[in-house]
Amino acid sequence: MTDLRPILYVQGWLLLAVAATMALPALADGAVGYPDWKVFAAAAAFTLFFAVAALVAFRQQSVRLNVRQGFVLTSVSWSVTSAFAALPFVFADLDLSYADAFFEAVSGLTTTGSTVIVGLDAAPRGILLWRGLLQALGGLGIIVMAILVLPFLRVGGMQLFHAESSDRSEKVMPRLTSMIGSIALGYGVLNLLSAIAFAAAGMDLFDAAIHAMTSLASGGFSTKDASIGFYQSPAIEWVATISMLLGGLPLVIYVRLARREFAAVAGDRQVRTMLIFLVVTIAVITVWLMATKGYEFERAVRAVALSVVSVVTTTGFVTEDYGAWGEFALAAFLVLMFVGGCTGSTSGGIKIFRFQIAWLRFRVQLRRLTQPHTIVPMVYQGRTIPEDVPGSVTHFCLTYVACTLAITLGLALTGLDFIAALSGAATAIGNVGPGLGPLIGPAGNFASVPDAAKWILSFAMLLGRLEIFTLLVLFSPHTWRG
Fold it and tell me: Tell me, what's the pLDDT at 115?
C-alpha cells in the first residue's frame, strides 16, 4: 500500500501556508473597519487546527517521496487546499452554498477564472483580495508542479523543459531549488511591474494589484462584474493584453532574459510559434469583425487582441461579448479554448508544444506513406525527440478530447443546453474562464448553474490543471498497491 503519512505531513505544511495567507485579507478588511475580517480569522483558525493536527500526527524526520507518492500528493494537495480555501466564501455574507464556494476556490487556485459571485463591484475588499491571492498562489504552484512532477508523467506536459534540463550545459540553473527560486522571484517582479502598469493606465492601486496577480497567473478574476470592460479604457485593455501574454509564455524565459541569454530566447521555437499564431488569429478575426459588424480598425483590433490572448492564454478577461460577434467568431473562440499557452507557463489548455509535436508526427507519417522504408528522425530545436514523446502526446490529446466529451454529457444531464455544456466542459478542463452562450458566456457567469454541474465543473478544472493523468492515476488500483 502507498504510505500516505509523508503526503499528509506535507499537506499540513500547505494548509499552514493557506492559514497564514488568510491573514492578508483579514488585515485588508480590518484596515477599513469592515467586519468581514472575522470571516478570515475564523477560516484561518479552522484551517490552522487541521494543519497543526496533520503536522503533529504525521510528523516526519525527513520527507522522501517516490514518484507514485508525488502524483498522489499533487492531486490531494490541490483538492484539499481548495476545500479549505473555500471557507472564507462560505463564512462571508455572500449567500453561497458550499458547492458555490468550492467552485470559486477551485476556479481561483486552478487559475480558471469562472465565478459564481454576483456584485463584485460592491464586494468586501478582503474577498476580492482573497480571490486574487488564490490565483497568484495557483499560478506559482502550477510552475512548481510543472518542474517537480510533470516531467515524470511523460505526457508532454513538461517534456520540453525536461529535455532542456537533461544536458548540464543547457540548464538554466544547476539545481531545481535554485530554478524554482529564480522563477518565483521573476514571477514576483513581473507582478510588481504589471501592477505599476495598470496603475499608470488609470486603475486605483488595489485594483491594479489584483489585476496584476490574476493576469500573470492566467486567472482572470476581476474586481468588477464587467471585468476589464468596466474601465472603458484602451490603455488598461492594452496593459491587460500584454500582461496576459507574458503569463502565457514560459516563465523560464524571463530567467534567461535576466541572465542575458537573448539568443536562446529569440530562438525559442515554441514562443515564436505562439506569437505567430496569435498575430494571424487576431488579424483574421479583426478583418471579420470590421467586415460584418462595422467596427473601426482601432476598436476592432483592441477588442479582438484582448479576447484572443485572453482565451488562448486561458486567462478569461473580457471587454465585449465575443459570442455575439457572429457564428464564425463563436466557432473560432470555441476552438481557441483548446489551444492554451506555452509549456512552462501559467496557462492551461493542450498547449503549443503538444500541437508542435503532433504536427511533426503528422508530417513524418505523410512521408512514410510514400517512403515506407525511410527512417525519419523527429527533431525539435536541433534535438532528436525521444521515441516515447510523440506517442505520449497523442495519448494525452485523445484523453483530453475524450474527457471533454464525457464532461459535456455530464453537464447536459444536469439540464444545461448543448452550447453551455460543450463550452462549459471546454472552458473548465482548459482552465479558460467564461464559456459561450447567454448563460455562462462573457456576459454571464456560473451562478445560475445547478449545483450538480458545479461539482462536475470543479472536478474538470482540477483535471485540466493537473494535466489529466496526474488525477486519473488515482483511480488506478496499481497506484494504491504494490
Answer: 93
Residue 380, classed as helix, strand or coil, is strand
Low-confidence ranges of the chain (pLDDT < 50): 156-174
Query: Which residue matches cell numbers 467586519?
Result: 35
**Nearest one of 447, 326, 432 to 422, comparing CA atoms:** 432
Q: Find the Cα–Cα–Cα–Cα dihedral 114, 120, 123, 126, rounded to 10°.
A: 50
Contact 353, 389 (CB under 8 A): no
Flag whether the pTM goes above 0.85.
yes
Q: How many helices (H) and strands (E) does the chain have?
A: 23, 2
Q: CA triplet 223, 227, 233: central angle to 5 degrees?
A: 105
Neighbours of 60 (CB within 10 A): 12
Place of cell 508526427: 361
Give the whole-angstrom CA distance, residue 17 versus residue 106. Answer: 17
Report long-range pairs for 2-7 (Cβ below 8 Å, ≥24 apart).
2/68, 2/69, 2/72, 2/479, 2/480, 2/481, 3/69, 4/72, 5/58, 5/60, 6/58, 6/60, 6/63, 6/64, 6/65, 6/69, 7/65, 7/69, 7/72, 7/73, 7/76
Q: Name residue 49's amino acid.
A: F
Q: Which residues contact 27 (CB under 8 A, 6 or more apart)?
A: 37
SS3 92: coil
